[in-house]
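name: query_chain
kind: protein
chains: 1
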Amino acid sequence: MKTFFQKKINYFIFIGTFLYFFIISFLIIPVGDDFFWWGKPGHYLLTHNFFNSDPGVGGSSNGRYLGNLLEITIMHSPIIAGFLYATVISLFIWCLWKLSGKRLALVMALAFFVTTQMGYIQTVFLWFAGFINYLPPITALLLYFVLLEKYLRQNKIIFLPGYFLISVIGGLFVEHMTLYQIFVGILSILSIYLLNKRTSKHLSIMPAFLYSLGALCSAALMFSNPSYYHGSDYRTISPNPLTYIDNFVSITHFWMITFNYITIILICVAIILISLNKFKKTSSKSLSIIPAIFFIIYYLGINTYLDPTLKLKLTKNSIDSTLASTDSLIGLAFLIYLIICTLIIFRGLNNINVKFYLFSYFALCIPFFFITSPIFIREYFSSYVFLFIISIIYINKALAFKYHLTPKLLTRTLGIVVCLSYLVVMTMMLSNYQVNLKRVADDDFLYEEKTLKHKVPYPNYVASNDSLMMQSPMYWHNRLGFKFNDYFYNKKYK
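structure:
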C-alpha cells in the first residue's frame, strides 16, 4: 500500500519548486532596464499611458501594459516579486509536465531551468525585466493548451470565464504572443467545429470563443498605445529579404538551433530508440538512425569547439562566416529531418498536438526575422519552449517500448541529477548575492557614482553577464537602507 507521501509526492515537489524559486527571486541582481522601471522614467511612463516620443525611452514606450506595470511593482516590492516569480515558474513547469505526457515528463519539465541555454537563463529567468515580459505570456498560452486538451478529451469545462481571462492577461506582455493568441483562438474554434463534424462528439466552441475574444480585447488594448503609430529609431525593419537571411546565418540560427544542443540530442536519441523498435525494414531504420547519429556528433562537437563566451555575447559576424554558413545549413537540415520524423512517427489525429507544437516552434520565430535591429536572444524563448516540449514527447515515445524495464531507476537517477543541479545554481546565486552586497556598499559607487570595480564570482548567472556599467548607485543607495538622496535621483533623470 502506498504511503501518504507516495500518493502526494507531486504536491510536495511543486511546493518545493515554489519555495526554491521564491528564494531565488531574492538572489537575483537587478540589471539595466530594471533600474529604468524602478526610477523616475518608469514612474513617468506609468502616469503617461506608457508613451513618450523621446528617443531615449527606446522600446520602453509600448503597449505592454501588464508587463510594464508588474515590472514597476516587483522592483519596489521584493515580496510581491518573490510570489509572482515563484508562481509563474511553478505554473510554467506544471504546464510543461501536463503537455508532455507521463513517465519522465515531470522530472524533465523540472530540468528545463538547468538544461536550457545560458542566454535564456540570463535574459528570462535571472533578469526581472526579461522574466516579467517573456515568461508569463508563454505560461498563459501553455495553460490554455492544458485546459483545451482536457476539454477535448473529457468534454469537461473548468471555470469557463478562465479562458477569457487567460488570453486577456497573456496578451498584455509582448506583441508576438499577443498576435499568436488570436491565431490560436481562431484555430481552436475551427478545430472544435471540424472535430464535431468528423466524430460523434458534440463539443461547445464557447471555451475557444471566449479565449479568442480575450485575445482580441488584449490586442486592441495593446495596440491602442500611441507608440505603435509614431516613428522610432529603436526598432528597424528591412524590406530586403537578403537581410533576413544574413541575420539568420550570422546570428539567430545559433539561438534557434545550435545552442539548443541538449534538446536536439535528446530528440535524436529518442528517434534512434524509436526507429530500432518501430521500423522493421533495415533501410527505414538506417534512413532515420544515421542522420540522428550525425546530428548528435555534430552538435556536441560544434558546441565544444565554439568559445563558450560567444553563447552569451553573440553578435553579428562574431563567428567566422564560413563556419556560420555551414552551421546554418546543417541547422536547416536538422529542422527538415525533425519535420519528416515527426510526421512519420506521430501519425493520426491523436498526435495532432505534437505537430502543432512543432508548428508553434517555427511560427513564434518568424516575426523576428523581419526585425533587423535590435536583435535579442530572449525573443526566441517562447519558440524554444515548444521544441523542449517536443523533446519530452519524443523521449516518452521512445521509452514506451522498453519503459517497463527500469522506470523507477531512470526517474530517480534523473531526479537526483536535477536536484543537485538546482542546488549548485542556488549556491552560485547565493555567492553572487553576498559578493554583490559588499561591492555595491562601496562609498565610491554609492556617493561618487563610480563604476563598480569587479564582477561577482559567477557572472553567467547575472543578466548582461554582470556588466559593471549596468548597475545603478541610486537603486542600491535606496535598497541598502541609506537615506534616499534626491540629488542622485534628479541628477540622472532631470
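note: The longest helix spans residues 407-440.
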